Every structure is written in structure tokens, then in C-alpha cells.
């Protein structure tokens, strides 16, 4: 915890009162049910605007070594690490038209990654690439994803514009049958799922949303044919248009300044303001980051993870607002739960949090000229209640004559939509175009949601095998009854704000498992006892964050106000410790999950 100037007891009491009030104003009885999925009549919102034609092809009936479901950084890194282990036939399957995952879909104007590029972009040591900006634009990141895929020859067997519809273990073949929506039915000895955590866009369930006759789209499917321009701006198609944007999360904060530059008029419909901290993006050189040394990127990435996981790190190489606020992310990440005296720690935490939030609110006042608008842009909750954002142009956009902030907190968001526009507080705002920056559903994609059915040994469905008590695994990756299936992601493992780092460690682990199984002619399958032992580790030191989230304004972190952290149970000692644990396990115990390949009858 950083040293903070004293905040008086009265101030803390007043903040607690105000935070409770602001939460009450926003909690809705319909919680997560308030959102609409982009399917059925709203399916057009999910269409791929970046790959015009899906080329016809014959369905595949062949056999590969590994099928990787998902071509984002998780899938790409799994492919690259498998290639390093000498695996030959690797088939990555993605519903997008190319590699990139979130960076394939999200190309909205202003898109950047707010984690430093030199730690966020994976495999910089291996590719020799050195980012040009401290915080990279989305297109640079997407190109880097392609760069890795090319370097490790992942295009050769890849399937794009294709969704995997089921996975079924074939006992006789000792392999998985992979079925897709393009009629494919091929065999894969191993399957790695890397389906992401926020890949299903969501729309606000505004009454009358279907009535609007203007143009609409979601930020993750940007319609440049309509707006003109590129991710750098120049949206000339909006010059004479009245444009609305719904949502002021990390995406809204990045897109609003670009819309403000080019729209005839921009209405920003805000329900809860984000914390908007200093960005200070700048060009960087190889010299700045010491990129002339071998292993420089790994060292920098480890340093960032150490600090944001609450470990002692000595020097702070990245030195930005993530690392300086690391102590305040305690409620966001499970890694700080080792603090000894909880009461003293909570008290110090509250003071540090109040100091940070006062600084954030003071910045709004300094930047935004109109006092009423500034007041509405101030966030009233604790720092870790919502994902922090960073911008040096967002608050400034509200000083423009063509930008209007429409605060919807009193009406729980937009009241309704009409043919012409949206209604808030009884006032109709006429719009030519309405853009949804309303984010993504959490935990509804991939094998954990049942959207991708998985049938293991004896045809048993993964979700049935788990039952009501939820996921079972060893380290989050493998499970009994589901041989050679490796699930990448944050469920029952450990996460970090620098998610690509986590994915890379998981990819290294997955590739090592495959290599070990190949070397021994075995299948990968932990025993139920190994799963039970891992579940006990997760439960033993599980931090109690429930009270914290119960006091937060609603959002996807707390299941829209339910009061529970919306994340799955994670390794309680943080990502840095988890990676160390995996490494030791690979060195000492990996053979425990290798079983004879002979078909088993149960
Ligand atoms: P988000 O954080 O879920 O934000 C959705 C926004 O829509 C919120 O401001 C929400 O308001 C608003 N909203 C929803 N329904 C509404 C309604 N009926 N009326 C008015 N407003 C409504 O989504 P996001 O901004 O797309 O970000 C998603 C995640 O993507 C981030 O948390 C982050 O993990 C990632 N991301 C990362 C970066 C990066 O630089 N690394 C950049 C962008 C996004 P409430 O807050 O009131 O619910």
C-alpha cells in the first residue's frame, strides 16, 4: 500500500454515504438480464464487417495433432508454443476472418491498449519487434498477432470464419472429433480451447430498441462504410450527423474523443462515469526499454506482473498508473490476500482509495470547463469497483460545443428508444446514428457456458460431469474424463490485468503437457483426487471480496450489483505465484497426469 496523505474520518464517512447512494441509484432488479445478446433479431449486430466474403470450401474430414479453438492471443500463443515443442499439424479455428481475437473484432476509432505495449505484446523477444508507442494502437497489436501467427506458420492449417459447434472424445481413435458450422468433422489428438472471456457483445435492453430507424452498430463491429475514416479518425461520414454513443467504459472513453472531433453533434449517454486517469502516451525507442539486451521483454513483463500481483519487485520498469495504483487493485485481483492484520489493512486501504478517487475527481474539475458537466463526470465509488481508464482527451472532449453529456443515472439508463432517437428524463434526443459501447457478456462463451458442448469419455457432457457445484479441474486446464482437452483462461487458474502474459504462461504449460504426452505415448488426464486437491487449494485461502463488491456500483465485476465478484474462483495467491507453481509442477509432477493411451472402458 502506498503512503497516502491523511483523509479525515468525516471525509471517509461522507464518501461511504455518497457511494451507497450512488449505488442505490443504479442497482436494477433485472441485473444481468437487462442486456440483449446479439442473436435472433439482433444477430446482425454480430456480423463480421471486416471480412466481406466467406469463401466456399469443402468440409474437412482429416486428422490433425492439435485443434486450437480460438485465434486470439490465447490460441496464437498456444500454437506458437506447440510449434516450439515440435508439434506439426496445428489447426487454429476462429469465427473471425483472421487471427487477432479481440483485436480482430475491436477496431473502433481511438482504440489502444491501456497496458504498456512492451509488456502487453507477447513474444517480443522471439519476434524481435519493439513497439513504437508506450501504449499501442489496436492495429499495431492486431498486426503483431498476425506476425506471431506467420512466424510460427499457423496459417497453414487455420480455419477462419468457422465456429466449432461440438467436441466429442472418440475412445477408439483416442482423439477428439471436432465439428464446425461449416460441416467439418475432423479428428484432433489434442484440443486446446482459448475462447476468451469477453467475446460475446451485449446490447442494452432498452425498450423500443427495435423501433429506431437510424443507423446503429456495436463498437466491436465498427461500420467504417458508414462513418468513413480509420481507427486514427477522419470520420468524414459523420460530419453532418447527430451521433449518440451509449456507454462510458474503457471503450467509450477511447472512442468519444474521435467521435467528438468529427461528428456534427455528439450525445454521450452516460449511466456511470469511469475513473479517467492520466494517459501520457508517448513514442518510445528501443533504447528507452533496453531492447538491445536478450530477454528484455520477459524481464519487463515479469516486473510488471510482480508489482501488480503485490510482490516485491525492486525497480518499477513500466512506472505508470497501473503500477503506482497496484495496491488499490487488491479488490480486483486476489493476490493481496496475504496481508497479516486485515483490519489495519482495510483501514489503510480505504484511506489510500479515498485519496486516489479524490485525485481522479479533482482532475475532472480541472479539465472540464462547465461545472454541471464536470459534476456529472465525477465517479463516486471505490477505485477497484470498475475497470480504471486512462485518457488525456476524453474529459477534454466535453469542452467542445458539439458534445453534450446526457447523464442517465436517475432513469437507470436510457428510458426508451423511438423511431427518431432516444428518450432520457422525458426528453427525446434525435439521432442519425447510435453507437453501442456497451461491452460484452462475461462467462457466456466457450466450454464453460455450454455454448460449445463437450462430450468426454462415455459421451458424458462436461457441464453434466461438473454438476451444480461448478467447474472441476487441475490448475484450471485439464479434467478427469476429458483426456487431452486443455482449457486456457482464468477459470480456476490466476489472472492479471496484463492478460496476454497470463495466456502466454498458460500456452507454455499446455504445450509442455502435449510434448510430455507425445514423448510417453500417453493421454493427459488428471485423476479425480488431483482435481479435489486443486479445488482444496483454491478454497483454502480464498479471499473474501464479497463485502467489497456488495458496496460497488453495478457492473460486470459484481454481476451488475449482486455483490459477488463476477469472476470464477481463482488461485488465491495471484498470477506471479501461480506461474511459479506451474513451473515446479511441470518439473516434478507432470507425469502424474499421463495415462496409457489404450482405450478404457468405464
Ligand atoms: P463495459 O466496461 O462493460 O462498459 C459498458 C458501458 O455501457 C458502461 O459504461 C455501462 O454503464 C454502459 N451501459 C450499459 N447499458 C446501458 C444503458 N442501458 N444505458 C446507458 N449506459 C449503459 O464495456 P467496454 O467499455 O467495452 O469494456 C469492456 C472491457 O474491454 C473492459 O473492461 C476491458 O477489460 C476491455 N477493454 C480494454 C481496453 C484496453 O485498453 N486494454 C480498452 C477497451 C476495453 P454502467 O457502468 O452504468 O453499467
Give your account of this protein's structure.
Pfam families: FMO-like, NAD_binding_8. The chain contains 18 helices and 22 strands. The chain is of the alpha/beta class and 602 residues long. It has a domain at 63-99 and 154-200 and 442-596: FAD/NAD(P)-binding domain. Strands 2, 3, 4, 5, 6, 19 and 20 form a 7-stranded mixed β-sheet that branches. Strands 8-17-9-10-13 form a 5-stranded parallel β-sheet, covered by helices on one side. It has a 3-stranded antiparallel β-sheet with strand order 1-7-18, with no helix packed on it. Helix 2 (73-84) links the parallel strand 2 (63-69) and strand 3 (90-93). Helix 15 (499-520) runs parallel beside helix 18. Residues 333-337 have low confidence and may be disordered. NADP nicotinamide-adenine-dinucleotide phosphate is lined by residues 26, 112-115, 198, 204, 206, 246-252, 254, 269, 271-272, 387, 408, 413-414, 437-440, 554-556.
